[in-house]
TrEMBL record, chain A:
One of its GO terms (biological process) is transmembrane transport. GO terms for cellular component: plasma membrane. The chain crosses the membrane at residues 36-64, 103-123, 135-155, 175-200, 221-242, 276-297. This is Putative spermidine/putrescine transport system permease protein. It comes from Nocardioides szechwanensis. Its main location: membrane. InterPro entries: MetI-like, MetI-like_sf. It is a multi-pass membrane protein. Gene3D superfamilies: MetI-like. The keyword Lipid metabolism does not apply. Pfam families: BPD_transp_1. Residues 99-297 form the ABC transmembrane type-1 domain. Residues 1-21 are annotated as: Disordered. Keywords: Cell membrane, Membrane, Transmembrane, Transmembrane helix, Transport.
From TrEMBL, chain B:
It is a multi-pass membrane protein. It comes from Nocardioides szechwanensis. The lineage of its organism: Bacteria, Bacillati, Actinomycetota, Actinomycetes, Propionibacteriales. The keyword Cytoplasm does not apply. Residues 65-255 form the ABC transmembrane type-1 domain. Keywords: Cell membrane, Membrane, Transmembrane, Transmembrane helix, Transport. Belongs to the binding-protein-dependent transport system permease family. CysTW subfamily. PROSITE patterns: ABC_TM1. One of its GO terms (biological process) is transmembrane transport. The chain crosses the membrane at residues 12-34, 69-89, 101-120, 132-150, 190-214, 234-254. The keyword Transferase does not apply. GO terms for cellular component: plasma membrane. It is found in: Cell membrane. This is Putative spermidine/putrescine transport system permease protein. It holds the Pfam family BPD_transp_1.
Amino acid sequence: MATSTPAADGRTGRTTDPALRAPVARPGSRLLHRLVWLRLGLLLSAPLAWMLLIYVVALAALLITSLWSVDSLSSEIDRTWTLDNFRTLVENQVYRDVTVRTIGVALAVTVIDVAIALPIAFYMAKVASPRLRRMLVVAVLTPLWASYLVKVFAWRVVLSEGGPAEWSGLGSPGYGLTAVVITQAYIWLPYVILPVFAALERVPDSLLEAAGDLGANSGMVLRSVVLPLLVPGILAGGIFAFSLTMGDYITVNIVGGANQMLGNLVFVNAGAANNLPLAAAIAMIPIVVMVVLLAAIRRTGALENL
Amino acid sequence: MNLSRTARRMLAGLTFGVLALIYVPLLVVVANSVNPSQSMTWPLDGVTFEWWRRAADSVGARDALVTSLQVAAAATAIALLLGTLLALALQRYSFFGKHSVNLLVILPIALPGVVTGIALSNGFRTILGVDLSIWTIIIAHATFCIVTVSNNVQARLRRMGTSLEEASADLGAGVLTTFRLVTLPQMRSALLAGGMLAFALSFDEIIVTTFTAGNGANTLPIWILNNMFRPNQAPVVNVVAVVLIIFSTIPVWLAQRLSSDVEAVR
């Protein structure tokens, strides 16, 4: 390391006056140390270039492609600007139905998951003993690592004709939208429990005791002390569940019967139907929904919890 | 806060009940792998290892597994490099547009999967004119894996503080030496945790993969999806599912050893 001048060598004894001490680091390193912007530039350039060149360009290109069309005769992409794709989306009943269905399923999954996650996270963070808490966290984390497809496949088996659900006497709703909601709620539940749990862990117990000492009963403490503090955590978990459900089209393929969600329409148009511009236009729907949602939620500070 | 005894009991009952329910479908799959009935009817009337034997002989499944491991390893390597650089920039410096960069990195996982999928597919095919292949899968996976590494490393850097690095600089170590001897050793378990998450995320990904995979490149999830609907292949898929369930306990075990590092999932 000390290569620049002999004076920097430790054997020559320490010089207490910093002005007499020669720099130990290499010239390049000294330059780096002095020029903050150079250091920052070197750190940022590669990841930023990757994200901009691959992802941002791709998103921009998607927007542009949605304004193109496909020549019905040659099935080549016609690069003249047109709003035809969006007109199709607005005017055609199918797209409206599928959009409403997709948002409906995503909302149902989000509400179910938050409703289940709240009491579980509360029990884990505030009622269970520390040892039990650690075990419960592991129990919640473990299924996260299990393959997504395995979980969907598991529900396909459970809900199948003559399968375990029918055999157990509970009955099976069969393959359809109910099955999609059950499966998606099942898959994303840990993603909702964890941020809510993290938010609850940050609420000091003394706060709850103080509220209790001041005469609030349990219900009031939960409603007016705990719940407001949990909003960022709930929103973070809710965004996960909502976005992941909106963008999913595999589950509906496997347990949804003949139903379609937005993702199916995107996939079919990008592939078999060979209409990339229309697929791009359909993909704008979830983007718009998510951007509106994220913009609204950004104000609450929940994004820092993602 | 004083919860009544009944309230505590109800909460405990609900928690354990739901957690048990989470594991039931997975156990059903495990049991089903020895189900003699090809159409998977319940209850099982007997036990067979026929499907396990056929899965062991399945060339398609084995090839797909190799592809998946290659993709996950490459994507993780890229994500580790870029994610660490990004975390250092975001955590140690303040600059114009920092919040936008933060948002940009989250975007690939915050936006619905089909959006990322169709955007990258369209970008590769119409803009760049590249044929879809294993490389396009790797690039796509790396793009959404960067955030897992970056988040883990940022959390660690925040906890580390800067005093050790400053001490190192005061003692005359250069920027790179300080990084190699002071910063990196402290980040090691965060890198392991972030890398593990990235690997698992890539290994398991199906939605973006269906958009960015070429004809020749089948990852394991794509193989599972393609074979699930074939009546004579479904039991083999079931066995592969059991193997994956067993595999998935490895990172949990590792995470327990790394303890607190993995708490911040994603």
